[in-house]
Amino acid sequence: MSEPLLSVEGLRVAFESDRGVVRAVDGISYTVAAGQTLAIVGESGAGKTVSARTLLGLTRGPETRTSGRIMFGGGDLATLGEAGLRSLMGDVVAMTSHDPLSVLHPLYRVGAQIDEAIRAHRRVSAAAARDRTIDMLELVGIPDPHRRVDAYPHELPPGMRQRAMLAVALANGPKLLIADDPTRGLDVTLQAQILALLEDLRERLGMAIIFLTRDLGMVAEIADNVAVMYAGRIVELATTEQIFLAPQHPYTWGLLRSLPRLLEVAGERRVPISGPPPSLIDRPSGCHFHPRCPYAQDSHRRIDPQLRPVEGEDGHGVACLLPTSVRRQIWQGLESGQDLPSLQHLAGSLMREQGS
Questions:
Q1: What predicted TM-score, i.e. pTM, was given to this entire model?
Q2: What is the C-alpha separation between 229 and 252, in angstroms, rounded?
Q3: What pLDDT is stored for residue 267 in this prediction?
Q4: With a cut of 50, which residues of the chain have pLDDT below it?
Q5: Alpha helices per DSSP H over the chain
């Protein structure tokens, strides 16, 4: 088996604050192969963006404590100096934001900003850079690129601004694109267009993508693998098919059940996850999800679960103290429409039978 393009091993990121230590990322590990998409999913504050920005050294500072390895291209990005990171960013690794106006400078034409990205890493003439810029605008599906190249960001509609931001990120043909919630704030039509564009670009350019989102429904068509994050940790790691057909973590069940479904017109309602996300300064003891988990047992308040392989599921990992057989029966009950009190009773009974 070939080496993965990116291998993150035990990554931890903590920030010193007046209120205490913010453990934003707490020992996550994953790999991304060339040409594949990994979706990292979780609520705001789960640690998705911090983990991604740390890959590029964007969280470094006097109040930041970072550990772990970030292996890419045979080297550890965590040990690179500022010069090495600058040469890397925008060239072999690129990142986009959910807000194009926070990336595109309002006082510079779109083409000039793509041109700058190209010439920062390539020794090319002004004419060659402009030709490449127009080609990039055409690649991301912006109509009439010869005219749009001289537009200012505010002159473009929202969907086109997203595409222009992608053109900046892809200008040098990166091997890895980190897309941070690129569909946030767009209507469903534009969301579908951006997702289709990312999938098309991945296939055409052969690059890997890390796709960060709060919406698990976004990943069904674009991702090969999914990492579900909660309180700075990966609580479930699986293929996209496994996540949708046989999810193993109660938090993942909550994310899935909160999605809109066609069955809602027949009376089925979305079920939100109860309670707010935990503080990353004062996290709950034991399983960090136990205050919001309807199936938590007494032991879950004391024992901190680690990511472990799921029995009978290759490549599927979960951090949950419920036995695999119990989780499977609960999920089957959820899928068949059983009410929550019945499932809570089932979970308690099965746990007592197994002596857990």
A1: 0.92
A2: 9
A3: 53
A4: 1, 262-263, 265-266
A5: 48-55, 82-88, 110-119, 126-139, 145-148, 158-170, 188-205, 240-245, 250-257, 324-335, 340-353
The residues, any chain, with a CB within 8 Å of residue 128's CB and separated by 6 or more, are none
Angle, CA of 176, 177 and 180, to the nearest 5°: 145
Please give the pLDDT value at position 1: 47
Question: Distances from the Cα of 179 to the Cαs of 37, 213, 267, 285, 325, in angstroms?
Answer: 10, 9, 35, 33, 36
Structure tokens at 312: 């009978």
Task: Check if the beta carbon of residue 212 is closer than 8 Å to that of residue 188.
Answer: no
HEC sequence for 7-60: EEEEEEEEEEECCEEEEEEEEEEEEECCCCEEEEECCCCCCHHHHHHHHCCCCC
pLDDT of residue 262: 45
Q: What is the pLDDT of residue 353?
A: 78
Each as own residue / partner, the long-range contacts of residues 101-109 (CB below 8 Å, 24 or more positions apart, any chain) are: 101/153, 101/154, 101/161, 103/165, 103/168, 104/153, 104/161, 104/164, 104/165, 104/168, 105/153, 106/152, 106/153, 106/154, 107/152, 108/152, 109/149, 109/150, 109/151, 109/152
- 135-178 pLDDT, tens digit each: 999 999 999 999 999 999 999 998 899 999 999 999 888 999 99
What whole-number distance in Å separates Cα of residue 19 and Cα of residue 40?
Answer: 28
Taking phi over 0 as left and psi of -120 to 50 as alpha, with beta for the rest, 144 belongs to left
Distances, alpha carbon 126 to alpha carbons 13, 18, 130, 131, in Å: 41, 49, 6, 9
CA distance 253 to 283: 21
